Amino acid sequence: MHKLNFKSSVVSIVSSHSRDGLASFTGLEVARSSGTVCLSHFPGGAFCIGRRHSTSSDAVTYDKTGAPVRGKNYNKFLNRKSLGNFRYSSQNDDNTVRSPPPIINNLPSRKPLHQSTDIQGSTKSLHPGSNNSGDLKSQLRKAYDDALHFCHSKKLPEDVDPSAVFACNRLNLRDIEVYGFDYDYTLVCYRKDLETLIYNLGREVLLDRFKYPEAIRKLEYDPGFAVRGLHYDIKKGLLLKVDCFMQVQLGSVYRGLSAVKDEEVLELYGSRKIPVTYIEPPHQYNTPNTESLNMAQLADLFSLPEMNLLCNVTEYLHQNGIDYHPESLFRDVKESVQSIHPVMHQIVSKNPEKYLEFDPFMREYLKTLRDNGKNVFLITNSPYNFVNKGLSYTVGEDWQNFFDVVVVAARKPHFFSSDSIPFRVYDPTLDARLWEKVTKMESGQIYYGGTLKQFQSLTGWKGDKVVYFGDHAYTDLADVTLHHGWRTGAIIKELEHEIETLNSPDFKSAMNWLQFLTSLLETYQDLEDPEAQQIIKEWWHERNLIRKKTKAIFNPQFGSLFRTHLNPTFFSKRLFRFADIYTSSVTNLMKYSTRHTFYPRRGESR
């Protein structure tokens, strides 16, 4: 939808797709104080470059002669060496601003796309074989140059605050009486050293217990190989990126560390679209037994070292001609990594400074919640001693004073769906669980196991008065929002890096030009003239080059956590389904009062 303002011979356009809170040119759900710049053209030659909520200094409007009506020239285009061969000057030889000519789309909206209208309004046939191909070729070249010129004149979107909180669903904190938190990657985040530790410990088990080749001991962890949200095809032994429509992103499918050619991917799956029953079984939110899975998703950050170990071993076996069964390899690696958690907990507890990130605002945030009369609880799958060491380091030795209820070893997501496991009180001095029946939940006590049904019965904390924060869309958020009515907040540590990447001038400029180039392709793609088709082919090639380069800015193999080339990722759409709000850190909420209301924004990426 576009908003049109007609005045005299001037037509201006401002996109309503862009909204406060969404950068529509990326599809990533991030806050932005003003909309994405857009360009359009109307019959008669008038066009505009503008922004939603724009002022006279940040929107440029041109009349049908190409003369600027208001505004000024803006930042030059991106570093041309880094993102494409964009060679067009936005200035004349005397350094004055060049007025854009009246061309971007000279095809009237009511005429077939194999016909063109010149500036005087006469219609020319553009069928192959006509004698107008030379004029058409010049016209297309001019359209490209003009689009590039207009792109130069656009003011880049304002930066996004990497520490902001973003809303998928309206959330009024006035209504929230109870705040709940997961522990790992929510209250406490980890350094890359922990991923390396998990990888190394899992590799040793794979060698010692499963007797894999000794050469695997030399395979090191690569923290930059994979991103969260990917899928691993257990049956085919492939790591791949899937979008919200269950489509494989070609160019982001790997067997081990080697990219799989698009032709082979299409042959293996029959098409880019994967059946929903293959990728997403109906009972997935309760973490089904992996024996019944075709695909496993890397839904949390702990899965990154596991997947890197799996891909390293796959690459070694494949390159050395060693026969292996993908599903057996997957289960060996998974069992190896899962078995090392007790050892990992001990190592981290002895040296929290090496493995934990210290958040200087966590204690203050928890205190703020208590000072505002909020009830606070912790439900985590981690054991008490591990949690105690971590929160003692990040919050203080008296961390339990900030929580009304603490539940450890909860076995989520079964905690949310089971009703058969009772709570037991844990005595830290005895390092033992007591047998007395739990009839009430008290501050200062540590509770093991239990179920959500018992938790709600004993505390009275139910429904939309409760908000729960976690990092795992399925284990932490899905069940409590779908079946129990809790409000939810997702903590996505990578969000900060993604937003910082979006804020870079090179990326913004590249995405602006990608939009212009796509508009040209959409407009002229149906022309039948052979020379026109050759030019359009060049545009497609340039567009693909930009897409590959912008993908590599996030991650060379898999790109952005939130976006494929065309659509939101499978991960991001599930996240937005289960999370009312999301941010990169719990303590980002300190920027808002406990009376704040978070509002979702309309946009194209949902």
UniProtKB/TrEMBL annotation:
Domain of life: Eukaryota
Polar residues biased stretches: 87-98, 114-136
Keywords annotated in UniProt: Hydrolase, Magnesium, Metal-binding
InterPro entries reported in the protein's UniProt record: HAD-like_sf (IPR036412), HAD-SF_hydro_IG_5-nucl (IPR008380), HAD_sf (IPR023214)
Residue span of region Disordered: 85-137
CDD domains in the cross-refs: HAD_cN-II
Homology family: Belongs to the 5'(3')-deoxyribonucleotidase family.
Protein name per Swiss-Prot or TrEMBL: 5'-nucleotidase domain-containing protein 3
Source organism of this protein record: Orchesella dallaii
